[in-house]
Design brief:
The chain is of the alpha/beta class. Helices cover 43% and strands 13% of the residues. The protein is built from 6 helices and 4 strands; from the N terminus they run βαβααβαβαα. The protein binds 4-nitrophenyl phosphate. InterPro entries: LMW_PTPase, Ptyr_pPase, Ptyr_pPase_sf, Tyr_phospatase_low_mol_wt.
Length: 156
């Protein structure tokens, strides 16, 4: 199984989701069976490490994001990944526009929080916010990743 998280810049929300899911998969003993990655719909930050504020907030909860480097999502990702999860509705519509024609895409595309019955449908973009935004991102992502791990267990 391969899972790809997608946000706008790939320096705040989707790298956080990648780090949290990877950690939870290790705890569940599924790290060898699920590959996790993240990407941005935009290319401004390609090659950069996650935002320092995301790294710091994640580290406080035991997630190390420091080795990640931003990349931009491509049409080919729809053939590589089984599940592509968008952080907000704008990311989802950009991905729908990029998606190959029906029948030519292996990936299932969905809105991350909505799929896992989170209190919110979208992970708010924390980039222009204070530190509180980064804590909320982590809270939402941790909750949804718990449900995602249960789904993955059932599908493996
Ligand atoms: P992300 O946050 O999509 O969660 O990585 C953003 C990072 C950078 C920008 C926007 C959102 N930006 O405009 O540079």
């Amino acid at each position: 199984m391969r899972v790809l998280f997608v946000c706008l810049g790939n320096i705040c929300r989707s790298p956080t989701a990648e780090g949290v899911l990877r950690h939870k998969l290790r705890e569940a003993g599924l790290a060898d069976q699920v590959e996790v990655a993240s990407a941005g719909t935009g290319g401004w930050h390609i090659g950069k490490a996650p935002d320092k504020r995301s790294q710091a907030a994640a580290k406080q909860r035991g997630y190390d994001l420091s080795m990640q480097r931003a990349q931009q999502v491509t049409r080919a990702d729809f053939s590589t990944y089984d599940l592509i999860l968008a952080m907000d509705n704008s990311n989802l519509s950009d991905l729908m526009a990029l998606q190959p024609a029906k029948g030519k895409s292996k990936a299932e595309l969905d809105l991350f929080l909505r799929r896992y019955q989170s209190p919110l449908d979208e992970v708010p973009d924390p980039y222009y916010d204070g530190n509180q935004g980064f804590e909320q991102v982590l809270d939402l992502i941790e909750g949804a990743c718990d449900r995602l791990v249960i789904e993955l267990k059932g599908r493996l």
